[in-house]
Design goal:
- The structure holds two protein chains of two kinds.
- By secondary structure, chain A is of the alpha+beta class.
- Chain A has helices at residues 3-16, 24-31, 35-50, 63-68, 114-117, 120-134, 166-172, 178-197, 239-244, 258-261, 268-284, 294-303, 309-312, 318-327, 339-355, 358-386, 390-419, 424-453, 458-487, 489-492, and strands at 77-78, 81-90, 93-100, 105-112, 144-150, 153-159, 163-165, 210-213, 218-220.
- Helix content of chain A is 57%, strand content 11%.
- In chain A, strands 1-2-3-4-6-5 form a six-stranded antiparallel beta sheet. Chain A has a three-stranded antiparallel beta sheet with strand order 7-8-9.
- In chain A, helix 16 (358-386) packs parallel to helix 18 (424-453).
- Chain B starts with 17 loop residues before the first helix and ends in a 5-residue tail after the last helix.
- Classes of the chains: A alpha+beta, B mainly alpha.
Chain lengths: 495, 180
């Protein structure tokens, strides 16, 4: 672009600022004949309208934190801890790998940012929260060892968790198996439940805060500490205020419950919401309220329902999709009251999943019985041809009717199992008696046919009798067993 | 165009202007040291000294207050960007979810990580239009208000505001996930 074009772009851009954005396109088309200039102005205006609070807050106002934020060098001593190396840094401050000289173990030392510890009341609150978090001893929670106050600095010493975050796994692209999803959800709910039982909420649960250790276990980090940032809460004016307060949003509010976004007090049910979002995202790699922009995502969290997990990930057990769905309700009262309840619901679902394979045996049973119907009809036809009599004709007709009835009913059940699994139990109950009557009728008819053949073809008659008895026993003994295995104990009895 | 090109003739010796440099930087320092907690190791004088040394090292003389203000703002930029680089900000910037940036939910931590990238974008902007880069330095790095910055650059506040918007939109595009 030539300097002349640049100057033209600048003049047009600045002139456009005095106009309504809605009229920009038409106005530009009239003003600029040079397509290159026009496209450039349009692109800049587009970015101008999306820039929001970008650069609006002079960085000099944060200079003390930025300049003071030098970090600790390896070898530096913090009390009896020696810094080994920096592990990372975030909104809370720096995290270091350190060795504890007294106990000879490796720990993580979190140096809290000065902005968090400057105010005495915040300091006190940090102490209190660290104390509460130190009381948590679940294997799924990163243990807090100590709170060290050295001079003005505040350090939280925790267990060192080596591994990668759940965010890494989600970003990795490979989708976990249904079993992995169930296990991950269960482990996290169990850890969170133990904290909730002690009255501690996390308040900033997100994939970045969940570590998978090198030996595969999950650990939740930063319990109860994450939202102590004095700048971060309480947010009283909703998302608009969130977007403009400097230093408020470290990362994204993607895991906040609607009530948190609205600035209302958040309790364990906000953790339940966050865990629901997390499991959803872990299971299918997509945020439940994903939208093209961050503000649109906040709007979706507040206003619209997530696409059901079972739609997005049909391979998952329905039970876990239902638990996630309930965790994502807008109203806290409609969610699980705490992670303990969520865990119970997940376990209930897991039990159902464990029973699921036996539906295969039930299905096989149904198919075999339908094949038996065909065989019985064939036997009756042969007999009617060999022993032409009214009895054999009527037996054939009876078996034919029974086979048609039984075949239709069992076909209906198989179809229900395929397309509308939750209704299967109900349909089974509705048709169980008819099935039994049909099968016993067929068994009796086959037996009767066999009796006709006894005088002339004894072996054939004996085999046919056995066939008839087998049909009766299958209906009386085997079917209740396969059905109970597939649909639950109470489905086995036909009442 | 109401640009004031910084003159280079008859530059006074840097040491003659030291008291004025000091006062000007103190003003800057006071703006942020007011928020500082007691016992903080960073003294205002230390910062001032650091900035001053930078100015002397760069061998950049100035011929009036306006010119100096521009240099001081640039020094603030250099200090902050260097600190951010030393902290490994680029690495964190590369790893950041830039969707957050494009929606302007820019937190302090994000902006900190953004500094080196912003610095490079500012260099590119400077090659297109040095004046726009000055405006960003004055307002963003030195914390000047519209009136002050307009005064320092010798333009009307209205013009400065519009040009600030242009520079900001340009930088925002440079730092957005898919530039152009």
């Amino acid at each position: 672009m030539t300097p002349e074009q640049q100057a033209r772009v600048r003049d047009l851009f600045e002139a456009a600022l005095d106009r309504e954005p809605a009229g920009w396109d038409a106005w530009l088309a009239a003003q600029a004949s040079d397509a290159e200039v026009r496209d450039e102005v349009r692109s800049l205006l587009d970015h101008h309208s999306r820039a929001g609070a970008f650069l609006a807050d002079p960085i000099v106002s944060r200079m003390p934190d930025l300049l003071a934020d030098r970090g600790l060098e390896p070898g530096a001593a913090i009390g009896s801890y020696t810094i080994v190396r920096e592990l990372g840094r975030g909104g809370m401050g720096h995290v270091y790998l350190a060795s504890d000289a007294r106990l000879g173990r490796t720990v993580a030392v979190k140096a809290l940012a000065p902005r968090l510890t400057r105010d005495p009341s915040h300091r006190e609150r940090l102490r209190r929260e660290a104390r509460a978090a130190a009381g948590l001893t679940h294997p799924g929670i990163c243990t807090v060892y100590a709170l060290e106050e050295i001079g003005d600095e505040l350090y939280i010493v925790t267990e060192f968790v080596d591994g990668h975050t759940l965010r890494d796994e989600i970003a990795g692209g490979a989708r976990p198996s249904a079993n992995d999803v169930v296990r991950t959800a269960r482990d996290l709910a169990s850890a969170l439940a133990s904290a909730h039982a002690s009255g501690v909420t996390h308040r900033d649960l997100k994939p970045e805060n969940v570590m998978r250790t090198t030996d595969g276990r999950l650990k939740i980090l930063d319990f109860g500490l994450a939202r102590i940032d004095p700048l971060a809460g309480p947010v009283s004016a909703g998302p608009a205020a969130l977007a403009t307060l400097p230093g408020v949003l470290i990362g994204t509010p993607a895991y906040m419950a609607p009530e948190q976004l609205n600035g209302q007090p958040a309790d364990a049910r906000a953790d339940v919401f966050a865990l629901g979002v997390l499991i959803y995202e872990y299971a299918c790699g997509v945020h439940p309220f994903s939208a093209s922009t961050e503000l649109a995502r906040i709007a979706r969290v507040l206003e619209s329902d997530a696409r059901p997990l079972e739609d997005r990930c049909p391979h998952l057990p329905l039970a876990i999709a239902e638990v996630v769905g309930r965790s994502l309700r807008k109203s806290p009262a409609e969610r699980y009251a705490n992670a303990g309840e969520m865990l119970a619901a997940l376990d209930h679902g897991a039990a159902a999943v464990a029973r699921r394979p036996s539906l295969t045996w039930w299905r096989t049973h149904q198919l075999v019985i339908m094949a038996v119907y065909v065989m019985a009809s064939d036997v009756a036809w042969n007999l009617k041809e060999s022993f032409v009599s009214a009895v054999s004709l009527w037996l054939f007709i009876a078996i034919g009717i029974a086979a048609a009835l039984g075949g239709i009913v069992r076909g209906h059940l198989l179809f229900t199992a395929r397309v509308n699994r939750p209704r299967l139990l109900q349909e089974w109950r509705r048709t169980a008696r008819l099935n039994l009557v049909v099968d016993l009728l067929m068994a009796a008819a086959v037996f009767g046919d066999a009796l006709l053949a006894v005088p002339t073809r004894a072996l054939w008659a004996m085999l046919t009798m056995a066939f008839g008895v087998a049909i009766a026993l299958a209906a009386l003994l085997m079917e209740p067993a396969t059905t109970a295995a597939a649909l639950g104990e109470d489905a086995g009895s036909r009442s | 165009m109401d640009r004031v090109p910084p003159g280079r003739s008859a530059a006074p010796d840097a040491h003659e202007l030291a008291p004025r440099v000091y006062d000007e930087l103190r003003r800057l320092a006071a703006a942020y040291m007011g928020r500082e907690r007691p016992g903080q190791t960073l003294q205002p004088t230390a910062l001032v000294h650091e900035v001053f040394l930078r100015l002397a090292d760069a061998g950049a003389p100035w011929n009036d207050e306006r010119h100096f203000v521009g240099i001081a703002a640039r020094s603030m930029r250099q200090i902050l960007v260097e600190r951010a680089r030393a902290r490994g900000a680029q690495k964190r910037w590369a790893a950041l979810d830039r969707v957050s940036l494009s929606e302007s939910l820019v937190g302090a931590a994000l902006e900190d990580a953004m500094l080196p990238a912003l610095d490079e974008a500012l260099d590119r902007l400077e090659r297109l239009d040095p004046e726009q880069a000055r405006i960003i330095e004055l307002r963003y790095f030195a914390g000047y208000g519209v009136e002050e910055a307009a005064e320092a650059l010798g333009m009307s506040p209205a013009t400065l505001k519009r040009r600030w918007s242009l520079a900001r939109a340009w930088l925002f595009r440079e730092l957005s996930p898919s530039p152009r």
